[in-house]
C-alpha cells in the first residue's frame, strides 16, 4: 500500500536500499571502501535516481555524524574517505546513464515536475502542521496515516534504546540499532517541517519533489531499529515485547485503513493512454518533448506529414528505410527548396544528404528538422548517433569498471 501511486517507482528499489543500508553499516565498522556498496549504489542509480539521491543524502549526513563522534578519533578521516570513494565508484559505474540524464535537461521541458500546482514541496511534508495551515495538504492518508504508523516505532525504538542501555544485550544488536535509529531520525528531519529552510533555499533538495517521500526510507529502518533495540531479558519478555508488537499491530491497522479507503473511494493507478497523455491535467506529455517543439507540430502530422509537405513544394518523396534510430528518404526536387522532416530537432540526430553531413535548421512553427534540398534526386538519411554526454558517460563507466576490477584483483 505504501507504494501506491507516487510511491510506485520506489518499490523495486527497496531490496537495494536494504543492501546499501547494511553495507554502509559494515563500512562504518570497518572503515574501508566496499565494492559491493558501490555496485549497489550504481544499480540503484540506474533503477531510480530520486530514491538514490534520497538514501545517499541521508547516509551522507549519518556518516558525517559518525565522523564527528569522539570515539572515532583518528579514524574519522578514514571513514569519510571510505564513504566518499565508495559513492564515487558507484556513481562512476552508473555514469553511462547519470551523465546524459543530469546534463541534458536543457534539451527537454522538465519544468512541469518542479513547479506548482503539479509539484509543491510546501504542502507535502510528513505530519504537517504549520505548512498545512498555510499551504494546505497534498495527501492526508500518506502524510498523516502512514506518517504516524512509522513515527510510533521510531519513538519506541529510541525509548527502548535509551531505557535498556545498561542491560545485558548483544553488542552487535545495539550497534546496529543505534545505526538504524540515526538513519531514521535523519530521514525524519528531511521529511518534516524541521527541514523547511533546507527545502526553501537548496534547489537540489527540491528535485526530490515531495518531502513525504522520505517515509520510504523509514519503512526500511524504523521497525528493524525497534526490534533490534529490544533487550534479551526473558524474565520480563512479555512486557518488553508488548509495545513492539503493539507498534506492529498499529502499523498494519493503519495500513489496512488506508488500503480500504483506496479501494472504497480512490481510483486505481491507471496507465491508459489518456492518463499518460495528460498527467495531472498538464499539457500532453509536456515533460517528455524537446525544448524546441513548436505549437504547430500536430497540424504538420494531421495535414499529411512528409508526403503532403513534399507535394506542396513540388517534390516527390519515397521512404527507403524507416527504423526508430535510422530513417532514409529518396527525394526528387524540381528546384532548390527546404523540406521539413517528421522528426523533432535534437542534437543526437545526424543528417546526411547523399552521404554528406549537413548542418540543419529548426522549423520554428513545429520544432521539426529542416533540410535544404537541391534540384534533382538525392538521398536524405537521418541517423541517431547519440550525444556527447552519452559518450562521456560511457567512458567514465568503462574506466571505473577497470578500476573496480583492479581493486578486486589486488584484494585477492
Describe the structure.
The protein is an alpha+beta fold and 412 residues long. Helices cover 54% and strands 12% of the residues. Strands 1-2-8-4-5 form a five-stranded antiparallel β-sheet, with helices on one face. Helix 7 (140-163) runs antiparallel to helix 8. It is elongated and about 90 Å long. Residues 1-6 and 265-285 have low confidence and may be disordered.
Query: What is the general shape?
Result: elongated
Radius of gyration: 28 Å
Q: How many strands appear in the DSSP assignment? A: 8
- The share of residues in helices is 40-55%
* Spatial ordering of strands, largest sheet: 1-2-8-4-5
Number of helices: 17
SSE inventory with pairings:
Layout: H1 14-30, H2 35-47, H3 49-67, H4 76-93, H5 95-103, H6 130-135, H7 140-163, H8 171-191, H9 196-201, H10 203-206, H11 215-219, H12 222-229, H13 237-265, H14 273-277, H15 297-302, H16 305-312, E1 315-323, E2 326-333, E3 337-344, E4 349-353, E5 356-358, E6 361-362, E7 368-373, E8 376-384, H17 388-411
Antiparallel strand pairs: 1-2, 2-8, 3-7, 4-5, 4-8, 6-7
Helix pairs in contact: 1-2, 1-3, 2-3, 2-4, 3-4, 3-8, 5-17, 7-8, 7-12, 7-13, 8-12
Short overview:
With 412 residues, the chain is α+β, with helices and mostly antiparallel strands. It has 17 helices and eight strands.
List its traits:
single chain; about 400 residues; alpha+beta; 5-stranded antiparallel sheet; 3-stranded antiparallel sheet; 17 helices
Amino acid at each position: 500500500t505504501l507504494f501506491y501511486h507516487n510511491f510506485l517507482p520506489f518499490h523495486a528499489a527497496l531490496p537495494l536500499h536494504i543492501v546499501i543500508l547494511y553495507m554502509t553499516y559494515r563500512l562504518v565498522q570497518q572503515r574501508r571502501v566496499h565494492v559491493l556498496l558501490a555496485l549497489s549504489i550504481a544499480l540503484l542509480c540506474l533503477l531510480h535516481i530520486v530514491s538514490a539521491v534520497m538514501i545517499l543524502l541521508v547516509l551522507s549526513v549519518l556518516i558525517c555524524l559518525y565522523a564527528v563522534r569522539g570515539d572515532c578519533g583518528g579514524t574519522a578521516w578514514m571513514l569519510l574517505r571510505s564513504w566518499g570513494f565508495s559513492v564515487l565508484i558507484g556513481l562512476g559505474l552508473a555514469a553511462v546513464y547519470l551523465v546524459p540524464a543530469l546534463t541534458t535537461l536543457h534539451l527537454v521541458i522538465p519544468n512541469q515536475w518542479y513547479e506548482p500546482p503539479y509539484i509543491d514541496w510546501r504542502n507535502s511534508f510528513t505530519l504537517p502542521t504549520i505548512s498545512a495551515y498555510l499551504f494546505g495538504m497534498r495527501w492526508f492518508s500518506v502524510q498523516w496515516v502512514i506518517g504516524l504508523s512509522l513515527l510510533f516505532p521510531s519513538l519506541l525504538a529510541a525509548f527502548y534504546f535509551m531505557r535498556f542501555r545498561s542491560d545485558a544485550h548483544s553488542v552487535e544488536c545495539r550497534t546496529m540499532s543505534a545505526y538504524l535509529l540515526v538513519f531514521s531520525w535523519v530521514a525524519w528531519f528531511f521529511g518534516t517541517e524541521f527541514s523547511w529552510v533546507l527545502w526553501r533555499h537548496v534547489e537540489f533538495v527540491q528535485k526530490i519533489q515531495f518531502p513525504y517521500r522520505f517515509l520510504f526510507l523509514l519503512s526500511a529502518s524504523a521497525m528493524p531499529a525497534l526490534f533490534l533495540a529490544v533487550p534479551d531479558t526473558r524474565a520480563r519478555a512479555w512486557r518488553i515485547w508488548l509495545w513492539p508488537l503493539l507498534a506492529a499491530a498499529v502499523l498494519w491497522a493503519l495500513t489496512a485503513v488506508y488500503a480500504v479507503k483506496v479501494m472504497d473511494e480512490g481510483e486505481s493507478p491507471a496507465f491508459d493512454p489518456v492518463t499518460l497523455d495528460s498527467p495531472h491535467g498538464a499539457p500532453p506529455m509536456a515533460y517528455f518533448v524537446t525544448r524546441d517543439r513548436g505549437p504547430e507540430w500536430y497540424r504538420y502530422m494531421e495535414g499529411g506529414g512528409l508526403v503532403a509537405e513534399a507535394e506542396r513544394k513540388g517534390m516527390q518523396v519515397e521512404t527507403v528505410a524507416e527504423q526508430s534510430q535510422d530513417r532514409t528518404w529518396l527525394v526528387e526536387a524540381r528546384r532548390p527548396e527546404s523540406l521539413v522532416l517528421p522528426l523533432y530537432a535534437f542534437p543526437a540526430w545526424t543528417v546526411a544528404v547523399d552521404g554528406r553531413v549537413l548542418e540543419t535548421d529548426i522549423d520554428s512553427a513545429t520544432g521539426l528538422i529542416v533540410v535544404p534540398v537541391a534540384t534533382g534526386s538525392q538521398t536524405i538519411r537521418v541517423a541517431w548517433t547519440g550525444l556527447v554526454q552519452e559518450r562521456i558517460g560511457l567512458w567514465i563507466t568503462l574506466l571505473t569498471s577497470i578500476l573496480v576490477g583492479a581493486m578486486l584483483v589486488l584484494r585477492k
